[in-house]
Amino acid sequence: MKAGIVGLPNVGKSTLFNALTRSRKAEAANYPFCTIDPNIGVVVVPDERLQVLQAIAKTKVVIPAAIEFVDIAGLVAGASKGEGLGNKFLANIREVDAILQVVRCFEDSDVVHTMGEIDPVRDIEVITTELVLSDLEAVAKRIDKAQKKAKSGDKEALAEVALLERLSPHLNDGKTANTLEVSPEEKSLMRMFQLLTAKPVLFACNVAEDDLATAEANPFVQKVANYVRTHHDAAYVPISAKIESELIELSPEEAKEFLKDLGVDDSGVSSLIRASYELLGLQTYFTAGEKEVRAWTIEKGWKAPQAAGVIHTDFEKGFIKAEVVAYQDLSSLGSVSAARDAGKYRLEGKEYIFHDGDVVVFRFNN
Fold first, then answer.
1. Tens digit of pLDDT for each residue in 237-269?
2. What is the spatial distance between Cα 237 and Cα 270, in angstroms, rounded to a whole number?
3. Are 197 and 136 in contact (CB under 8 A)?
4. Strand partners for 303
């Protein structure tokens, strides 16, 4: 599962990508299109539960969950018609599962804004418009194709036409596909359309170093907060990409001291990673033993055999039962034996739907 980092040129995308991946993989420069080919980085998901489980399991090996971030070229108005790197940009977005849109919420005369004055809502609307225009073109082509098929009475084609004919005016009003009210069946159908605006989105408000401690009072951040709640039904996270890029060179202790001097506990990158993980519809379960404590990533709603399959396909094929204890119960009781004595360990079958934080041992046939 990948989250694509998008935004206008010079808003801090590549700086944020470097901060997230703790690398210098992406060139961060004061000119448009310094990112041409997308950079890809694997990012560890911060999870304090791992250290607690490590102490309980008495192991030295801890393996956290991870997700991929893709740094995509900056977009300009007219991208849907091929302006700038438009076609490349849109093709790259099509390949990701969720969108992390970086919005500039800082003033800096040394870093030019390609559209003049700082206006984060305008910037969001520019990108949304280009994605909507691209989707409108895709919907128009799909309607034409589905209508021909529907003439024969094909039920799937008829359902497709009905949904597309609702989508078209919705998009024409400048609204994104993910804000259209749909049934579960229509939601599954819409996935087949591969629309850009159907992807879940999270907004990263990139603030100046001095504004991080009071980011919620930043007028630009407030504008973004009000706008994305009402127009996108989306969340936002204030972050300072500049601070994060400076932390790359520091040890964890030095970084903590640096942030303390700025009046904050975290620059926001941990919150951003966790929010992106959530945005992708992911959750974590754990295995914990003397060999290692490990976080496993699954999609929300997965049943026990599917969850077992991420460890090994044999676990899914030969699934018998899952021994399950909730992290909260295990951590409060302090040991596996205490959790068993308290009746908190359960045997679950094939229909069990995993919850975030489940600690598991699988029983399976070889």
1. 999 988 888 888 888 788 888 888 888 887 688
2. 10
3. no
4. 353
